[in-house]
Amino acid sequence: MAAKPLSIYEILKQEILDLSMLPGRELSEAEICSRFKASRTPVRTAMQRLVDEHLVEAVPYKGFRVSLLDADYIRQMVFLRIVIETRVICDFIKLDNPFYFEDVRHQLSVQKIMIEGGNINPVDFYAADGAMHALWFEKTGYPILWNQIQQSEVYYKRFRMMDLVEKNSYQAIYDEHSKLFSLIVEKKTSELPDLIEYHFLGGFRRLRDLLTGKCRCYFSDTGDLDDFVMFLGSQKRP
Prior knowledge:
Elements: H1 8-17, E1 26-27, H2 29-36, H3 40-52, E2 56-59, E3 63-66, H4 71-95, H5 98-117, H6 122-139, H7 143-151, H8 154-167, H9 170-185, H10 192-200, H11 202-206, H12 208-211, H13 222-232
Antiparallel strand pairs: 1-3, 2-3
Helix pairs in contact: 1-3, 4-10, 5-6, 5-9, 9-10
């Protein structure tokens, strides 16, 4: 059976999330109709769904634009991930299941193969990254919690894609994942919080120069962004 064609909504959403369409980009309803050879009704339906998901903003008398990123929202999502994932990984360690550890090792191998192969697709690496983190949520019985986190990452996912696209931070992320896995295998739970915090703040740290320059225009709350970037200046590697 042939695969069902992606809808206008699905295509635009993916292009926004993978930064093919940058934050702040203006979207013309007429241009979208022309691109997809569609009438205004399905285009308007797609745009409304994207507005409802905060991926697109309606601009009075102009049309639409890709929503700007919210630095404070991203900061709070990072904090949420740090707190929840620290606890979930501790529970994962308590399971002490060698097959589960092998699953994580396999995901690390996938990331390593991508890096060694070169010419990495950021979307593919993001998916591999997420697959590894999803493992400890699934194995500890929290798949619903993982799904809720994914659905709440409207701004955070695009920010993380910016880290991959602008900084090609694959090796740095892989190294942090490898260190995290070492702590899991060695059951060094006392060292987890610092490393997990360092890992999740990595995007802000690596993008620091761009967040005050080239990429600053992608954010709606530049004051919050500046405060957080300044705070990260003193963060030390665990």
